[in-house]
Write a structure and sequence with these properties.
Elements (H helix, E strand, L loop, with lengths): L4 H13 L13 E7 L4 H13 L2 E7 L1 H14 L6 E5 L3 H6 L7 H7 L2 H5 L3 H8 E2 L2 E2 L2 E13 H6 L8 H11 L17 H13 L5 E3 L3 E4 L4 H12 L13 H9 L5 E5 H8 L10 E4 L12 E10 L6 H11 L2 H11 L5 H4 L2 H6 L2 H11 L2 E2 L9 H16 L5 H18 L9
Parallel strand pairs: 1-2, 1-3, 11-12
Antiparallel strand pairs: 3-11, 4-5, 6-9, 6-10, 6-11, 7-8
């Protein structure tokens, strides 16, 4: 065929690196556009190698969370293709699948993946981030586990144990709150919308709550329950031991406050916990402890709320094969391990088990065992198509309660009734609905 030994070796290496792709002829005209969430800039450093091996040029568009959501939805609704590949939050899965915004990947997975490779993906990620209505819509990319991060040096100095219950968090936050020293007991996001909704529901789930009663059999919302009210009262009370500006906190503000040494506790996703541990970026590196989210009672079983991102292919793109080549590469074991050094959120067992990564981010051992024992809970934010509307309504009511404009019980009651109407309007039946 006239191929030189050097070119043959080049093709062989390319095929190996991208997981069974075979040889790919370099072609500078091949370009795909990828819309990704902020925090994935580490991928950009690896792109030259990918482009050299595949001949596919990648135009990465790194966006903030609201911008990614708004831009993606605008393109989908208008029927245009502004990207070939989209990062997809786990909570958009049902919505994007039902509306056909992204294409199913089952045919490509069956063609290119062995069972052993599939089994290397964490089940919490594979099933929760990618599967909906019997089909696979994305490949899992980042696994985020919600834990309570705390300052080990402050807890040791105060002779305090890691908190187990919601009441323990109250006690520890009060004991470690020293505003005169710019040290605060705890902070959570209270900003209206996604921020307060996600963090409150994670706290609710950690305490044993399920936002929907028994999906898919019973989708009745449970936010008018005594447990939800108790959790919200704790959540609002934590503002007493937080920085003065906490009422406007987004999760980014919470992350920076912990990273700069101003907080004793910062319950958050593991992707943010990674920022606490980095020696070159964090004032508290080497002083970070972690535990599961606080329970209602110490005897309650531990729960680890789970979130994260998948990577999907736009339904209307003609560049399916090149998009799929990119997705296989960015979710491959080798690339996942490399990216995990900066993000600490791999979706593969082989990466989680890596000794170097476990040394950098010790909580990986905890989540590895949690995956095996079933403590991971991906449905703390239901992935149904109606969830974005739920988040908007609940986020509004929670924020009003945090600002003291409505009573916690009234906020939850209003949200619960509004969510019932949203669910019914979306075409789902509730046992109590006519």
């Amino acid at each position: 065929m006239g191929i030189s030994r050097r070119m043959w070796l080049f093709a062989l290496v390319a095929g190996f690196a991208i997981g069974g792709l075979g040889s790919v002829r370099a072609d500078d005209t091949r370009t795909i556009t990828v819309s990704a969430i902020g925090g994935n800039k580490a991928i950009e450093a690896l792109l030259p190698e990918f482009e050299q091996k595949t001949g596919i040029h990648v135009s990465m568009q790194i966006l903030g969370y609201p911008q990614l959501r708004q831009r993606s939805m605008a393109a989908f609704v208008s029927g245009t293709v502004d990207s070939d590949v989209y990062w997809e939050d786990i909570i958009w899965l049902g919505e994007w699948a039902q509306n056909g915004y992204v294409r199913p990947l089952d045919d490509l997975i069956k063609r290119d993946f062995t069972q052993a490779d599939i089994d290397d993906f964490l089940p919490g990620a594979w099933n929760a981030q990618s599967k909906w209505d019997g089909k696979t819509w994305t490949m899992p990319f980042g696994a985020y586990y919600f834990l309570n991060y705390y300052r080990t040096d402050l807890f040791e100095k105060g002779d305090l144990d890691a908190p187990v219950t919601l009441d323990d968090v109250d006690k520890d936050a009060a004991a470690l709150n020293k505003p005169a020293l710019r040290q605060f007991g705890i902070a959570m996001p209270y900003q209206r919308g996604t921020a307060i909704c996600s963090w409150f529901l994670a706290t609710f789930a950690g305490a044993g709550g399920h936002m929907l009663k028994d999906p898919p059999n019973d989708l009745t919302p449970t936010l008018d329950s005594p447990l939800a009210l108790d959790v919200l009262k704790h959540y609002i009370a934590w503002m007493k031991w937080a920085p003065p500006s906490v009422a406007s906190y987004h999760w980014d503000d919470q992350t920076v406050a912990m990273q700069t040494g101003r907080l004793a506790m910062s319950p958050s996703f593991s992707i943010n916990g990674t920022e606490f541990a980095k020696p070159d970026q964090s004032a508290i590196s080497g002083k970070v402890g972690y535990t599961v989210m606080p329970r209602e009672e110490a005897s309650d079983p531990p729960v680890i709320p789970f979130g994260g991102w998948g990577v999907g292919i736009a339904a209307k793109t003609p560049k399916v094969e090149d998009s799929w080549t990119f997705i296989k590469w960015v979710t491959s074991a080798e690339v996942q391990k490399t990216l995990a050094k900066s993000s600490g959120t791999p979706v593969r067992y082989s990466a989680l088990q890596d000794p170097e990564l476990q040394k950098l981010y010790p909580w990986l051992k905890l989540v590895l065992e949690a995956e095996k024992t079933g403590e991971v809970y991906p449905n703390y934010r239901p992935r149904y198509p109606f969830y974005p509307q739920v988040e908007e309504e609940l986020g509004k009511q929670l924020n009003l309660a945090a600002l003291g404009q409505v009573k916690p019980e009234d906020a939850l009651k209003s949200a619960n009734e509004a969510i019932k109407a949203i669910i019914v309007k979306a075409g789902y039946k509730l046992p109590s609905a006519p």
